[in-house]
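User: Hi! I'm working on a homework problem where we have to compare a predicted structure to a textbook description. Could you give me the structure for the chain below?
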Amino acid sequence: MKARSLAVSLSLLALAALPVLAQDKPKEPAAPSMADMEAMQKATSPGEQQKRLARLAGDWTFVNKAWMAPGAPPMESTGTMHGEVLMGGRYVEHTWKGSFMGQPFEGRGTDAYDNVAKQYVSSWLDNMGTGIMYQVGSCDAAGNTCTYNGDVWDPMTGKKMTMKSVITWADDNNFKNEMYAPGPDGKEAKMMEIVAKRK
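Assistant: Happy to help. Predicted structure tokens:
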């Protein structure tokens, strides 16, 4: 009797499994349509925003002012910058050389406009630290005033703080970059200003 019950149970299980076994194999994903391909190409091709960023290409001189404390006189230094457009106009990389607090200074940035995210993005690293600063931003309609924000680690306190950069173009051969961060009282204060002129 037990053998018969077992046989019936196994038969019922087999019958229950038949619909599952009879199902079609999973369908292969459909190939992208022409519309999909066109949308992707548009999203990954350089446009007006990338052309505006390309103004950084070339050779520049700059004057740097840094305020070590609000109200204190700024420390001044000078240097050069070389910018290059990369990967068919999608990015611009700029290398800065000069001095800071009596020491040789070198910094490198990469700027882009992300067509998909619809925002400007910027990374920065230099020989005065070991981290990489990442900021996102937006510009006015003409692309002459751009504001970037991002978090950086403060080497003095070991804590994260918000840094703001405002880049203002007077024309294609002159721009200013002003950097702001919280002062000792926690209020936003101007920490640095770079005035650059094309050679």
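For your comparison, note the following. The domain at 48-198 is CATH 2.40.128.20 (Lipocalin). Residues 6-10 have pLDDT under 50 and may be disordered. Good luck with the assignment!
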